[in-house]
Specification:
The protein is mainly β. Helices cover about 0% and strands about 60% of the residues.
Amino acid sequence: MSTDHIPGVTLTTKANVYFDGKCVSHSFTLADGTKKSVGVVLPATLTFGTAAAEIMECVGGACEYKLDGESEWKKSVAGESFQIPANSKFEIRVAETYHYICHYA
């Protein structure tokens, strides 16, 4: 999966800012009502919680991630994605800015 352009969206212009600015995203809605967000995570190690299941698609940079209950870090680079279950959490470790699209399942 590799997304570099998303046509026909309605964008929420106010940014979602998390962890004192270490993660910034913008939410958007596709014509069919599907909601997603696009953003960046700056160098840090952070823990996120999920309500809905998510697919994190890397469109630039790289990260390492560890899903709830797992002990091993895995790497995700541009063109790759990883899935997080609903009502869960995951850790993300970023050494260089990580650019992503979050696809809500």
